[in-house]
Write a structure and sequence with these properties.
- The protein is built from five helices and no strands.
- It is mainly α.
- It is elongated and about 70 Å long.
- The termini are far apart.
- 0% of the residues are buried.
Length: 103
């Protein structure tokens, strides 16, 4: 059992624990109801035609949108970090001038 397996197992356990935390777990039923677009009354009557496929596609769209936003945020943070690393000398001189000016 290498270090990769231990860190993956720890990350998985942390994800499960955060999912069942008291702050997240009570939100799951309302989230599933919202994402499915089907009311409780409609489900109890038994009129759930297309509800499963609708829920699947709504969930897929939500995950795709969520992933796209976080990928874009990660890419922009990477670009900003590369820019700052490339121009570190200039940025430190500008920061020094600002500190002296405020002093």
């Amino acid at each position: 059992m290498g270090a990769e397996n231990v860190s993956l197992m720890i990350a998985f356990t942390a994800g499960i624990l955060s999912f069942v935390s008291p702050c997240v777990l009570p939100l799951i039923p309302s989230y599933v109801t919202y994402i499915s677009g089907v009311s409780l009354e409609k489900l109890t009557v038994g009129d759930d035609r297309g509800a499963r496929w609708g829920t699947f596609f709504h969930s897929l769209a939500f995950v795709a949108g969520f992933s796209l936003i976080f990928i874009m945020l990660g890419a922009s943070a990477t670009m900003l970090g590369q820019f700052m690393a490339k121009n570190q000398v200039i940025i430190s001189k500008i920061g020094g001038v600002i500190v002296v000016g405020l002093g």
